[in-house]
Structures are given as C-alpha cells and as structure tokens.
Amino acid sequence: MRRREGEETVASRTITLNINGEERNVMVRNADTLLYTLRGKLGLSGSKPGCLNGDCGACTVNVDGWPMKSCLMLAVEAEGKKVMTIEGLRNAPIQQAFVKEFAFQCGYCTPGFIMNCHALLEQHPNADDKTIKEWLESNICRCTSYIEIEKAVKSVLRGHSGGS
Amino acid sequence: MLPFDFEYYRPETLKEAVERYQFLEHQGKQPTYFSGGTELITLGRINLAYADAVIDMKEIAECNMKEFNGDHLVLGSALSLTQIEEANPFPLLTSVASEVADHTARGKITLGGNICAQIFYREAVLPFLLADSQVIIVGPEGIRNVQINEIFQEHLRLKKGELLVQTVTDRRFIGAPFFAKKRRQQWDTGYPLITVAALKIGQEIRLAISGLCPFPFRSEEMEVYINRWGQSLEARIDGALSVLPKSILDDVEGSADYRIFVLRNLLMDALQALG
Q1: Which residues in chain B have Cβ-Cβ distances shorter than 8 Å to A32?
Q2: Residue A30 sits in a domain of what CATH number?
Q3: Which of A17, A93, A74, A88 lies closest to A46 in space, CA to CA?
Q4: Does the beta-carbon distance from A54 to B54 stay under 8 Å?
Q5: pLDDT at A164 over 60
Q6: Cβ neighbours, 10 Å, residue B25
Q7: Hey, CA dihedral for A44, A48, A51, A53, is it positive or negative?
Q8: Which residue does chain A place closest to B58, by CA atoms?
Q9: Considering CB atoms only, which of B7, B37, B42 is closest to A10?
Q10: For chain B (length 275 residues), average pLDDT per consecutive 10?
Q11: Do the chains contact at B2 and A33, CB–CB below 8 Å?
C-alpha cells in the first residue's frame, strides 16, 4: 500500500518544537537533522548549510542557551528544548556590534557566528580572551573577518555596543 | 540529510533501554545506542554508518550523573564534553576533552560517545586509562563493574546489547600532577595528530597516547622505560619508543615517521613537566 504524504510511520512523526518562543508542530523523519527541519520545513533559512559535518559552524543555533551545530542534531532530539535561530534575535547587542565593527564580508557565516557569540555573551558575560578564542574557533569565516568578529564580541563585553 | 530511515526511542530507565534493544534485535533490526549521535549523523550521511533504530540515552538519569560519591567521581556517559569542561571535576579530563573537535561540537559530543566511537582518536578515554577507572556497564545480563584497562583493548569491548553507563574514578587520581598536550596537523583547530596524556602517581609516571595507532592506548611497557629515573631523558624516551605498538598510523594527516617524531618531542615535554 502506498503511504500518504504526511502519514506517521515508525520512522517519522509529528513533533512540537519551541523555536524562537513559539510552539511549532512539524512532521519530520526521525533521521532529519534540526538544520534540515528549520530550513526545509519551517521556512527558517537563516541557519546556513555549510559542511553538514559539524566543522564550519554556519548552521549554529542556540539550544537551551548553548550553541549547537544544527547539522549535528536530529530534530527529534530538540523536542522539549528551547531553540533560538538567527530569526529570533531582534537587534541584539551582538548584531549591532557586528554592523558597527563591519564583522562580515560575504555574510554566509554570519548567522552562525552571531548565534555562537550571543550564547557566549549569555553564558560568560565576563569572558576572558582565552574563552572568547575557544568559543570562536567553532566557526569558520572564509572571508577571514576574524579580527572584526573578535572586536564585535569584545565591544559588547565592554558595554560599548549601545545595545539594549 | 541522512539517506536512511530509523526508529527513534528515548527511554527514561536503563532497564527500558536494554529491553528496547533486545526487542528490536529480536525483530531482526539493527539498533544502536545513541548519546550525542555525532558519529551516526556525520558518518551516516556518507553511508559509513547505519542503524535502523536508535535508542537515545540522554533522558536516563544514571547516564547524566556528575558527582562525587564518597571518594569516587562518577561521570555519566551521556554528559557532553562541554558539561564536563564547565564543571571541571577532573582537571586532566577537562584538559584532554577540551581539545576534542571544537567548543560548539563538544556541546553535542558525549563522554560515552567519544569513548565508544569508531574514530581513531577517542581522547576522552585517556584519563580513565591512566586513573585505573572503573566502568559501569549495563546489558541483557545485568549491571557489571569492570576496570577500564581490562575492557578497553583498542576499543571498549562491550557485548551485544550492552551500553556504557558511567565511569568511576578514585579521588586520589583526580588531583595528581598531569600533563596533556595535543598536537595537530596545523594551527589550533586542524585535524588531530597526536595526543599524549600523563599522570604522576608518587614517583610513577603513567602514559597514554591517542593518534599514534588506530586506537588510543596506555602502554605499561613504555612506562617501564619512562620511569627509569637514573637514566637521561633521552635514554628513557628511546627506550619507550623501542616498545611502541606495531600499527603506527601512516596517512595523509601524518606519516608514521612524522608521528613518531612528534611523539618523541611530546614525551620530552611530558617528562620535563612531570620531572
């Protein structure tokens, strides 16, 4: 018998995800990554597919306040957790700082960097240089805007961004 | 995206997990325990790993334990390496674990997942090999408590349906002087080459290595030479290098000769640091 589209099976189900403060119901394969679900099923295309192997960080989102490479997480694992994507940040201090410091060139890696930096600032508001470096090593920028990105993070840490 | 489908279960007890595994296996399926799941997700994407049912261990309380029980540190296998780093209950483990992959990835990679992985490196096992830790394993035959050096022979030799629940480490090893250094092919974030971890217990230096062979190991044969205190550092290291395992990695990340060259220098650093 042919399976109807959207029908639950042992390999797929409807799950409820808390994304950017909203409850979203979505039918997923158990094998779908969070990245694929965000982009392909929920229309949240801010998280970028890069290596799809957990190396580049372009797909970074925040899960319960911590950075997460959404290509390394199944959507079904995110049930019961609070997921924040770049679409959920509204003029956050780190976004203002990226603009002020011109911390991007082509911009493809920027959402992932911003989500990682946002989590860093939330988890370690007094982060030292070693901690900043350790966290930022998780993301790759092929335009090499690293100095500007570091400046942006430090400007927020020092309260220079003027953000709310 | 993974090119195959699988069933997904998230049990809340060890009993439920083990029974689910047995049930699925009796149905002719290929189940796997899943903790961080990074290996299944990344290797599965390129058809190098497969499962048709995964049993996610992250909701099982015992697998999330992180506490001292008397004089023993108990660490659950589902703890992420980031959770361990942030809590820092075992400084040598923190030092070694903080060099695995990158910070964000370590938020997904778990202790048990790293120890039981297929990849060569599996650095998180090194501190436990040095500290004669116990591992708590559960399976169809019940719970067993085994010394890690007995059961980790190139890989953790679990029986069908068994899963790693916890590591248990005596407090006297936790505060001992240690050395841990990872050398990469390039920069601070390149692919791993060699990791050396060493622990000094009294006047005895213990040594464990990852990235030299296709498996991490502790070598008591090398330790005999390393602990010949009356000899020069060079002689102790030459002796240790004379009893290396035979299967030295020789690949695009580093030739066998280069890996041994790097190891020699790391051993010198370790001996100078630990006396």
Answers
A1: 1-2
A2: 3.10.20.30
A3: A88
A4: no
A5: no
A6: 15
A7: negative
A8: A77
A9: B7
A10: 94 98 97 96 95 97 97 98 96 96 96 94 96 98 97 96 98 96 83 93 96 96 96 97 94 93 97 93
A11: yes
Out of B2, B102, B108, closest to residue A68 by CB:
B108
A73 and A99 inside one domain: no
Domain range for A38 = 12-85
Residues of A in contact with B48 (CB under 8 A): none
Domain assignment present for residue B2? The answer is no
B42 vs A contacts (CB less than 8 Å) = 53-54, 72
Rounded distance, CA B20 to CA A105, Å?
50
Domain boundary among A85, A105, A135: A85
- Measure CB to CB from residue B108 to each of A12, A57, A69 and give the nearest one: A69
Task: Tell me, yes or no, whether A147 and A128 share the same domain.
Answer: yes
How many domains, in total, are found in chain B? Answer: 3
Q: Same domain, yes or no, for A39 and A64?
A: yes
Q: Are residues A75 and A132 in the same domain?
A: no
Q: Which residues pair with B196 in a beta bridge?
A: B181, B209
Compute CA distances A43 → A28, B9, B58, B121, B141, whole Å. Answer: 14, 27, 28, 38, 47
Total domains present in chain A? 2
Structural tokens at position B179 = 């050395």
- Residue A11 touches partner B, C-beta closer than 8 Å: yes
The parent domain of residue B129 ranges over 61-173
A107 shares a domain with A72: no
Enter the ipTM.
0.93
Q: Taking phi first (over 0 means left), then psi (-120 to 50 degrees means alpha), and beta for anything else, what does residue A85 get?
A: beta
Question: Residues B163, B242: one domain?
Answer: no
